[in-house]
Design the sequence.
């Protein structure tokens, strides 16, 4: 079985992460309950004429994937696999609103086409003229992890040598309003918002795109290798520890082998109890959190994956993401754990290569 | 290459039947499910035909016994019904007695509810329960809960090839030993969103769809859900399962031509079929029947026809599109057509391509227009979606 290496990354987030050195510019925003992506200039990635009509998610996806491919020194991957929780919601809204406001008349197809969930993966393939395997997963907080699991399988089982994999989600006005109505987003009056030690419900909502090039060979540009990916649909809080321990055991690991644990705490007091393992089996482990930087969205864990990859590559744990004061000499094995509202739990193990 | 994967259960609900038996009965008796839309209002109702399931949401909820105050979208309800049937058909008592999963597929998700309540949400608190039912993954979670599964749950959404891709991932996870059992398939309900979407693309027919006919005008949208249960050889032996058929090969490729139209020479379709044959370790001459994507749009049937000729050359086996029966059920299409492919193998019968009258001028391809008995071993099923997503799955008797 081949090993799966991460050889290129591209990250667009609410932070300035696209062309800067890893977390060199960090801005914590505790007063807004919706954070928007720091989008690059798209001119160098997309023809100007196309930029205007292109969905935000598609633009972010194309830019992030181009960056990842460039870093990996690759022109054409064998496969493209994407994950998105909501797809291109801006275009979905545009089309739906037009239907409702105009009584199903005077409609044009552009928004409809861009509202199909696989449009990001499809348009990346179109731009690269890549005729290989192309899948899109849309399942809440494991959308990205499913893409990763599939990509890893492709590389390990020699179905593909190189896979471009990414997580994308965009915000959109009406959907944000609905999420506020459904009490998913932090209330205005509850600010300032903090991810750690929060005593309020809801999350700070956001958007972004993180892409990675996975290959079956190690390169200069290699960040880490992916040892394992696991997902489970739902767990009670008191089942998490067993789930994690069983996963570690099946991968010949113990909690003490983990040099850093990257957790998806998002400041929702109702659900952050899922990360109580930080006080039990990982009490002595350097802990990392990231959603205070990225905000929360279905594929925010791809930002966490980007953070973990960089920690292993640089062998350094930046202060900006330190959840406890612990550090280690070296970070050989990193565990990531994420979930959303008690569902879509995922575990990933990355190794130094 | 990889070993074939056993199918031990199936479930389906479509406009031609509420379960496997009813669907089979309609197929062999040439009874189409295409009609005028009744379940909701649309300004287009007199100029389109659809493959509508003649059950209201209340009736679906009753069948599922989920009470009137549920937060299921129609997509989720159809999916739950079909998945439950499949699990019962396989004789599974406890979904969690081994490493189990559900890989569903949908393009509509909860849009049928979102479009109903889009503005009303702000006035009416009671309907807000549907806000979190909008995304694709929510329907899969509801289906998983309904069949009592706590395990690997995910959703594929690649437009009209979605369910084929769900079947593919499921088969690969069994083959690589990551799962012992996985329920795979898809579900999509009719919605104003998709009706209007396809209308703006000008590929809806105002009449009964005519796949591969020279005078075809476009597709009829449909709604449906279908699931297969795939299980490992070890489980099949342990539980003494009756194997219905096998998933023996599959392939996915990207046309990389245009966001919605297929390339002239059907490159994506050709590559998908080629990959499927390769993974199945079969030659084109081993295929006994092709269940075509055959949406009856001018573009698809031409592109697919060309791809079929490139693969099979002078020896194209019998082929038909069953979309003249059910309409194009989008993300569920490949799942219901998987069920039909298995039925074809079980009963050694090829289902007719209804409404065909005039051969296409571009080439020499005539679909099977009557029900035909033929001893069969391998059936090839095509599903092609927007974003150039082309998928082929091969089903085998043993």
Sequence:
């Amino acid at each position: 079985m081949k090993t799966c290496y991460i050889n290129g990354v591209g990250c667009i987030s609410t932070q300035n992460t696209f062309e800067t050195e890893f977390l060199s510019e960090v801005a914590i925003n505790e007063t807004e309950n919706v954070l928007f992506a720091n989008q690059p200039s798209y001119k160098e990635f997309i023809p100007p004429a196309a930029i205007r009509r292109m969905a935000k998610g598609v633009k972010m996806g194309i830019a992030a994937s181009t960056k990842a491919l460039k870093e990996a020194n690759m022109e054409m991957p064998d496969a493209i696999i994407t994950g998105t929780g909501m797809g291109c919601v801006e275009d979905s809204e545009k089309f739906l609103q037009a239907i409702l406001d105009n009584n199903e008349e005077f409609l044009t197809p552009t928004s409809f086409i861009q509202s199909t969930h696989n449009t990001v993966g499809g348009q990346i393939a179109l731009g690269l003229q890549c005729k290989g395997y192309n899948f899109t997963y849309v399942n809440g907080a494991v959308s990205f992890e499913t893409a990763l699991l599939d990509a890893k399988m492709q590389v390990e089982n020699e179905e593909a040598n190189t896979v471009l994999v990414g997580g994308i989600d965009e915000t959109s006005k009406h959907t944000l309003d609905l999420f506020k109505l459904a009490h998913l987003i932090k209330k205005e009056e509850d600010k300032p918002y903090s991810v750690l030690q929060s005593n309020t419900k809801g999350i700070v909502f956001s958007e972004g795109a993180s892409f990675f090039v996975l290959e079956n060979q190690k390169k200069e540009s290699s960040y880490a290798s992916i040892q394992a990916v696991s997902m489970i649909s739902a767990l009670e809080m008191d089942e998490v520890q067993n789930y994690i321990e069983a996963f570690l055991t099946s991968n010949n690991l113990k909690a003490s082998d983990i040099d850093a644990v990257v957790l998806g705490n998002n400041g929702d007091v109702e659900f952050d109890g899922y990360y109580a393992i930080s006080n039990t089996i990982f009490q002595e482990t350097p802990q990392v959190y990231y959603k205070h930087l990225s905000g929360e969205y279905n594929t925010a864990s791809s930002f966490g994956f980007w953070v973990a990859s960089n920690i292993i590559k640089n062998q350094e744990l930046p202060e900006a993401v330190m959840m406890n004061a612990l550090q280690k000499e070296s970070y050989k094995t990193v565990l990531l754990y994420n979930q959303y509202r008690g569902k879509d739990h995922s575990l990933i193990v990355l190794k130094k290569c | 290459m990889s070993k074939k994967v056993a199918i031990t259960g199936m479930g389906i609900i479509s406009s031609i039947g509420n379960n496997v038996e009813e669907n089979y009965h309609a197929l062999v008796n040439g009874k189409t499910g295409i009609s005028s839309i009744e379940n909701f209002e649309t300004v287009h109702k007199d100029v389109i035909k659809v493959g509508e399931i003649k059950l209201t949401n209340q009736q679906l909820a009753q069948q599922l016994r989920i009470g009137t105050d549920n937060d299921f979208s129609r997509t989720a309800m159809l999916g739950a019904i079909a998945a439950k049937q499949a699990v019962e058909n396989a004789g599974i008592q406890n979904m969690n007695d081994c490493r189990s999963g559900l890989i569903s597929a949908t393009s509509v998700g909860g849009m049928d509810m979102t479009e109903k309540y889009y503005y009303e949400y702000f006035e009416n608190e009671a309907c807000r329960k549907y806000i979190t039912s909008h995304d694709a993954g929510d329907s899969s979670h509801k289906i998983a809960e309904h069949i009592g599964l706590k395990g690997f749950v995910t959703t594929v959404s690649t437009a009209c090839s979605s369910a084929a891709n769900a079947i593919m991932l499921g088969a690969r996870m069994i083959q690589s030993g990551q799962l012992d059992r996985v329920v795979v398939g898809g579900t999509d309900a009719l919605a104003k969103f998709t009706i209007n979407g396809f209308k703006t693309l000008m590929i809806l027919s105002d009449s009964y769809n005519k796949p591969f006919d020279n005078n075809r005008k476009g597709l009829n949208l449909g709604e449906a859900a279908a699931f297969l249960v795939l299980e490992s050889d070890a489980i099949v032996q342990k539980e003494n399962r009756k194997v219905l058929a096998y998933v023996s090969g599959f392939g996915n490729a990207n046309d990389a031509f245009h966001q919605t139209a297929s390339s002239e020479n059907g490159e994506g379709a050709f590559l998908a079929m080629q990959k499927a044959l390769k993974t199945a370790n079969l030659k084109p001459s081993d295929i006994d029947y092709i269940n075509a994507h055959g949406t009856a749009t001018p573009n698809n049937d031409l592109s697919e026809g060309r791809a079929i000729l490139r693969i099979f050359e002078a020896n194209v086996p019998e082929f038909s599109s069953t979309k003249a029966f059910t309409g194009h059920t989008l993300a569920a299409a490949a799942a219901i057509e998987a069920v039909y492919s298995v039925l074809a193998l079980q009963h050694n019968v090829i289902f007719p391509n209804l409404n065909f009258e005039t051969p296409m001028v571009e080439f020499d391809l005539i679909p099977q227009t009557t029900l035909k008995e033929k001893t069969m071993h391998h059936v090839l099923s095509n599903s092609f979606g927007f974003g150039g997503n082309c998928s082929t799955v091969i089903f085998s008797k043993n």
Remarks:
- The mean pLDDT of chain B is 97.
- The first helix of chain B runs from residue 20 to 28.
